[in-house]
Structure formats: C-alpha cells, structure tokens
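Notes on consecutive records. When two proteins share a document, each keeps its own sequence and its own token line. Never mix them. Below: protein one.
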Amino acid sequence: MLTLPVHTLVEVVSGSLLMGPESTVVNGVSIDTRSLDPGAVFVAFRGERVDGRAYVPEALRMGARAVIVSEWDDGIRETVDSLGRHDAAVVLVEDPAAALQRLAEHHRSRLHAPVIGVTGSTGKTTTKDMLRAVLGRTLRVVATEGNQNNELGVPLTILRAGVDTEALIVEMAMRGSGQIARLCEIAHPTIGLVTNVGETHMELLGSQPSIAAAKAELVKAVPREGVVFLNGDDAWTDSLAESTAAAIVRYGLGDSNDVRSRHVETDGDGHPSFEVEAQQVCFPVTLSIPGRHNAYNAAAVAAVSLHLGVPPGEVRAGLEEASLSPMRMEVFQSAGGITVVNDAYNASPTSMRAAVDALSDMSVDGRRVAVLGDMAELGSLAELAHFELGEYVAAKSFERLVAIGDRAARIADGARAAGMEPSRIVTAGCADDAPPILEEYVQPGDAVLVKASRVMGLERVVEALTRPHA
C-alpha cells in the first residue's frame, strides 16, 4: 500500500498544494468513495459519466487525508472548513489520471517482488486467476481484480502491493498500439506472459501482425535478466521471441515446449485432466473449471510457478482449486434444472470455439443450446468470422442456436449453410429478445451456453435463465 507524506506526494505528481499541511501522511489510494479507506488519498478524475470532484466532500467525510483535483472549487474549501478537516490536503494537478500513474510508478520503484505482466488476445484473465490461486499457496500475492487491467486499473493494482508482497500479478489489456508499452512503463514487469495472438482488436489495429506487435510491447519491456513465457504452439511466438533479450520459456501442448500439458481428456462435466511435464517434473492435474482449452492456461501457470520455486505439489493443488472471475466459464444449475454455462464477459473467434467445445464435451441429460451474440472489434474479419463460427456450431452437438445481434445474424447464416436445420436456428435483435425465446424452448435437463462480447450485455439472458418462474 502506498504510504508517503503529502510533500512527497506533491513532488511525485508535479502538483501544487492548495491547502492542508505538508506533513500529513497518506496510506493508500482510491478513485471510488465506495472503497475508500480512512487515511487514503482520493483521486478525483473526470470519467465518461462521472466527475470525481462531486465526490470530494464524501471522500473527506469518509476520512481521506488528501484529495487530488484538476480544478479548484471554493466548495472544497467550504467542505474542509465545515467538516473541521484541516488535516486534509488538497493537491491541484493538470491530469488526475496521469497523477495516479506517477504515484504507481513511484510506488513500484520501492517494491522488490517479481512483477508478472500477463497479456494476450484470449485467456489472460483466466490465466491471471489461475496464477493467483497457485502462487497464493506459498507466496503473499497481489493481483489484478476484476477488469482493472487498463491505464487506471494497473496503477491501482500496483498501489495495493506492500513491502511484504512476494509476487505482483498485473493483467494488461489494450485497445491500441503503445498502450501496453505505457502500462509496462508503470509496472516494470520482470516476467512477461503472453497467452496468444488472435483476431481480437482487428478493427482497431488492422492486422494480426499489428496485434502481435502490440503484444510484443510486454515482451520488449522485460529486462535481460527477466523471463518471458510464450505459448509455443502459437504461430506468432517466434516473432515475439525476437523482441527480447530475456530468457524464453515456451509452454503449450506440443512436445517441443519446455512446459507442456499432455494427454488432455475431459470428464462428463467438461473438466480437463492432463499431465504437466517440465524437465524432470511430471504430475497429474484435473481442473475444477470446464474447457479443454484451459490445459493451455494451466501449462502457462505451471511454467511461471515452477520458475518462481513453487513446489510441484502446490502447483497441482492450486490449479485444481482455482476459480475464475465472474462470467468466465461459470457453470451452474438453475432452480428450474437447466445447466447454464455463463461465459458472457467477452468473446473472440478463438474463445467462442473453445466455449462451444467445452459444452460439447459435457454430458447433458437433455439438449444443448448455444446462445451466441456479436463479437466486437473484428473489423474486416467480422462477416467471415461470424459465418465460420456458425459453421463450427453446426458441426457440433447443438440442438438449438440462438444468434443475438446484427453481426450474429451471420452466425445463423453459417450454421444454415453448414446443414443445420433452419427450424433449429433463431435470431434475435438484442439480449432482451432472447429470454422469451428460451423460455418457450428450454426445459429441465437442457444445457445452455451464453457467450458474446461484453457490449451485448448477455448477462441479462443468464439472469432470465436463472430466475424462478411460477
């Protein structure tokens, strides 16, 4: 946790102290009064929907010892006076978001724990969750929470770490060239992990080489004495490996990898079992989360964990006990006896196929239903990617396809073209149109996969499926 006196804070953020004592010591940083602890500094920045300055009075009432603002407001002085908070400091900066990043950079310079940067087109959050579960068995770990993987979330993750932190896991997302590089300037990763290079962000970056170059920004940031972990089965790995002077460890399913998951099988619940093999180490693993593709994520996690000295037995236990963030391959049964696979947080062609495979591998008493929505940010690939996904679904054991969204209409087209009976295919304009369709068709014993890009809001479909009906 960040701890420093106000005079140092002012210097770090290149700000001006408007009021309050320089000697006040702050402990922690918050951008949300709902999670603000007494003694913290509150950073009031203007977001798309909310102006943080409006919450400065609440922050001071909750015990903030300092607030960082970009505009002076006489109401702040009045609030300080009315609350008797003359111990609180008010710091003026040009850009509160940049101030937050500078605080994180300053704090990172005082940490000695290995910093593991995780990125990739798909699987980075799952890999981060699994890595936290494994490393947390033997080390004091701080890791990215929720979707805090951007220019605000990464600094907040770093600022939660303390001198006693033994491993810091930082998930890094991007929406354009140079963004991961900037996150690396803040985090200074000593270990880099890339899950894969896919089609996600094609609309923004234009081509897979450009996507690979963006992911390579993490690889380049790892110092010579660090280690980079790459998916050895990914077509772009050789190119990524050329971007660093650090040691390279390759993981995956292929025999040529340094760490690999071998003999992957799935049980009736879709849970994969396999052997993790690395040099002279070999141990069996059965994951508690479904999806054959998670054998890749497990190999990545095992590679990093073994490198950091986690005993093989603890790696196995951590992998088997790992749970994922919400809306990522969540499997549960509704009150009405329907098995729901909620993977509605995000989607790409690769992750869509993996989710379809996961439900296909599960033993189901009734019928399998795929509720699939638009995949965003695919650019010129959108038409073909959605069409090919429909063809893929048609080749699997699904009795019904519900395609939601304008782009997803091409999923329906692809399924019909591949021979799926038109009577088994339904299209819907938006998430709110799907529940009545499913209520009429789905019955106890059926299994329903729900997946789309986040903008589609398919969690509303999941809520409808789990809502008790009279």
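Protein two starts on the next line and is unrelated to protein one.
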Amino acid sequence: MKSLSESRWLRFATFSAFYFAQGVPIALLTIALPAYFGEQGRSAEEVGLFLAVVGFPWGVKLIMGPFMDRLTFLPMGFRRPWVLIAQTGLVLSFVLMAAFGSAEGDLALLMALGFISNSFAATQDVAVDGMAIDILPIEDRGRANSFMAFGQVAGYSSFSYICSFLITTAGLATTAIVCAVTVAVILVVGIVVRERAGEKRLPWTEGAAVDVDHEMDPTISTYFRQLIKVLVLPTSLILIGMELLNRIRDGFANAILPVFATQEVGVTGNEYAGLYAVMGVTAAVTGIFFGPVIDKVGAKRFLFIAFLASAAIHIGFVLMSDYWTSMPFVIGSFAAVLIVSQLIFIAFIVLAMNICQSQMAATQFAIYMSLSNLSRTVGSGILAAVGANLSFSDEFVIMGGLLIAAAAVLWFFKEERREPEG
C-alpha cells in the first residue's frame, strides 16, 4: 500500500477521515448532550458551564505543539505517532464514558468525562494539522483543506442526529460505545497508512526512520526563541490581525443568527438547528469544489475576494430588509454566508500552513488556530457588552464592516516562508 507522501488521494481521504473523527466528540458534547440537558430541565447557566468546561481543551491546544515538534518516534513518522496516541486516547475516553453511562444526570462527572474526551480530540487536531503541513505539497493544500473541513462537518452533522437519537432511546452508554467504535475504525486507518514508505506501522513492526531531517536542536530555549522570531514576523502579525477581525465577526454571528431566526423570522429552535445542519453540509460540499480553485488562484487572492463577497452579502441583507419576512430569502442569505465563511476558513488555513516553519509547524499552526478561537470568543463578549444598544440592521452592518477591515489588513500580507536564525 502506498504511503501518504506517495499518493495525493490517499492524503485527501486519510486527512478527511481524521477530521471526521474530530466531529464525533463535537457532535456528542456540544450538540447532543446540551439538547438532552435542556429536555431534562437543566438551566441555561448549567448548560453554559458544561460547554465552557468541555470546550476548554480546544482553546489551549497550543500547549501540545512543543511536545509534538520535539518528542516523536521517527521510525513511525514525524507526526503519525502523536495522531495514533490521540486517536487511541479518544477511543478510550468514549469507553470510559460508556462505563459511567448510568450517571447521565451527574453534570460534574459528565463535564470531567467530556473534558478528557476533548483533550484527546484537540490533541489529535494539532497532530493532524502538523502532519498535513509536513506532508502536503503547497499546490495541494487548498483542495486538501476543503476535504478536511468537509470531513469534520460531515462528522458532527451526522453524529449530532445519531447521538441525539441514541441518548434518548438507548442511553449514554450505548451512544458512547457507538462513538468509540466509529473512532476506532478511523484509528485502524491511521495504523495502516504510513507517512512515508519504509517506516514502521507500529513500534514492533519492520521499518526505519526515513525523514531524518526533522531532528531538532535539543535546547528548548533555542526552540522557543526561534518560535517567537517566527510569530513576530510581519506575515504572522498580519495574519493574526486579519483573523482577529474575521473571527470577531464569527463571534457576532454565532449569537445573532439564531436569535434573528427565532425572533425576527419566527422559526423554532429545532427548525433552526436542522436548517443550520443542512446548510453546513452544503457549505462543506461547496468547499470541496472550490479547493482546486484556491490552489489555482492563490490563497491570498481567493481570501481577499471571499472577504469582500461576504461583506456584500451582509450589507445587502440590510439593504433588503423588506424581505426579512420571506423565508426563502433569509435561508438563501444565511446559506450564502455559511458557504462563503467555509471558503474563508479553508483559505485561511492554507495561508497559515504556507508560512509555518517545518520543524515547529505543530506549535506555530496551533497558535494561529488557538488565537483564532480566542478571537471568536472576544467577538461574542463584545456583542454581549454592546448588543443591547444595537438593532439587527446595525449588527449586520458591523459584521460587514469587520470583513472589509479584514480584507484591508490582508492586502498587506506578503506570503514568505523564512527559516528563523538560531
């Protein structure tokens, strides 16, 4: 069987499968269980606390980067050992959850179990991203990231329904076992597929290190000095500033769209969730078709156009407020926003990957993504502070303005990948 370095489509399929695995805990912990808690009469404050605790590992996943960049087992590949460790931990975390499945009403216990599960999921995310940066040719990153993004959306969209159904009909233990089996199947994929031909599949099998160029200076202070130099390069600072503006808009949207749908349009929460899932899958499928386009025209140019297109949709939505009572118009507008947001997400990842230094890619990329997640939280916090004084029209105009500002910052981005001096 070919290795990841030898087959483009094997890379696409494998990375998509890994991202699908990430979608399984996202579905269970952030969609299915909160809905179950609501049906059991839990308060919004309790559900919010649960989400804050179980989601915490995704906000601090960058701490795993230095370990992955410096501690590995090269005979099995540079990143692959960490992917297998994280996948195995994720399977075991679901088994542990199944063992305590009878304690469905114990919120504190479920928070602890969810925290453990997401710790492995976030670790797997950092490891897979580092592997992608290391393995993917630059000309394939747009298409590959479109498949990866689709894999995650497919994972949490399908399992949000599966988990919600199983929790109410068969209980949490059965639900957790189904999740464990699904992730275990994907773990087998990780065991079978090697990064490079000639490497070991498992520590006790035949093979040897192939990519020895990743040996690093043993001095940790040298490593962090190099990392800081990389992060303060103009390319990094511009990328971070651009994503700050974009993700603040995302933080606004996460709070505004469901409120607008239920209060202004009049749909129920369940109807909104169903529509959002369908639109999310549609956006992910669209992203797959645009992956080659991103590779062809360049991530920066594509991202610039996408920012302006999304800004136009937001502002145009306000200018056509007379149609807000039309369900097809609102659904079409929301779908357009989600589709373009998916394309923005893919193009941003490509840009971030392209400027990562190979020897510290897991840490550097994890920092970019963690700051991106933090920026989204900042956006929600800003809206919470000033939202009472804003109308829906004001909020959509502000979101459009943030996207225009992000495009303006991106204009100064010059993609260059320089190795830092020691």
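For the record: DSSP finds 14 helices and no strands in the chain.
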